[in-house]
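Our working data are protein records whose layout never changes between entries. An example says more than a description, so a record of this kind follows.
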Amino acid sequence: MKKVSVLLLLVLALLPAVAATHKKKKAAAPAAAKSQANKKGAKAPGHAAGTKGRKAVSRKAAPRDATPSKAASTGRTLRGKSAGRQKGPAVSRAQMELAQSMAGEVYRMGQKLAPQQRVPLLLRLLYTMRPEVLAEEKQKWAEELFVTAWQLPQETVEDRAARNSAMATAAARMSIYDADRALAMLDNEPAGMGPDDEADARSMAARLVFAAFLRRHGAAGSRELAAHARRWSEHGGYPWAAMEAAMAHLRPDGAASAEFFQQELDAFHGGHDGLFGTSEFAGLVQQAVEMEAVPSAAAENAGSAVVEHLQRLTGGDAAQLTPKQKNLVAQTVAALRTVAPKANGVLQESMPSLVALRVVRTVPVDTAAIDPELEAAFQQLAAAMRQGRGEDLRTAIVNGVRLLNLRYPAKACAGCTAPDAQSAALVLLAAYAAPGSIGEQLKGIEDPYWRAYFLAIAAQQMGEPTRVADPARRAVEEEKEEAEPE
């Protein structure tokens, strides 16, 4: 008892000293912060006032968004790239559950449709919300997409390409959840039937599937993947680009990576690749050299094989090639330029017209005409959101759905599988404005396919809310940006 009393007295005696010390620290903190700020604010080379020591900054206009943001409500304006990086609003559990319920309803509606419409709906569902949301359902949807794609028409090359693309997409999405099953799906996909200068859908999907497979099985899975690739190449394209993942996993073992690369070179020698496959193989050689997975002598041997293929495929004359073929040749030559100097020298001497080609990067542009009625509906909805009037908001959404129903009536859009940018933006904005009632509002669209498709778009917006830009204004501003000097 006496010991406890002594300790209690010591604690009571120390309390004033501790309090005084805490008070001093608290008073000194603002002064220290001010001193640190002064140090940061001191002029340093390259940080003087104005633009001296800095790179000139291009002042391009930021895309205008119709979705109100926190900054807009406080009178501040967002400019530049920071506006695009803003996170969307938090999603409540109830809203997320409603979004998932809507996705399930889209799936059930699709069950009543023909394969030509069920396939694009399943594709849309697989990309609705993050992969971990509805993960179990999405695995089933990927399996169903793969099977349903077999039922698509196969009369023309375009038909078969669409079928193969859908099946390859199903395998690519399955690789997120089960890489072994995804690889088996690619094994069962028909060989590509397009021209030699076109990408093979299975080879493109293999980039994702092989990477996921190796993450699970490690470097030991590389040989198994090479065996799959050789079987595919008997009646289709060889997935050269997908082999970059295998080279990266084998890189720590120099002997193993060199042996694997030699096997790939042997496959290229004995294969029947067109210009696309040759370009992909040249890219593999470039990546292998840059990651230091193969010696320079092996790279030169591969470069010589590429030169032989170019001679056989083009005759050494660029004049006979289409623009797409010229671009593939230019990509091939660019890959060899730095990693195989001897082979590049032979190419310059024997086929100078191919060396003179340059890679042309093309950006797809939406050339659809702007619909003035949809544009007016978008602006009406945006104005109702800014003003916060519930009745005006409901009226604007009803008007927008009415226009969509007129734009996509039953059987009036034969062959259409996705809406235009204006229509999609209108639904996105409506879902952002009224997530609780958008599902009911979209029942005003009479065609079952388009009602389901727009419902999937709305579910995506509800599960992952994002800012919505007016496609009409964005197109104008992009043109203005291109015209402004850097």
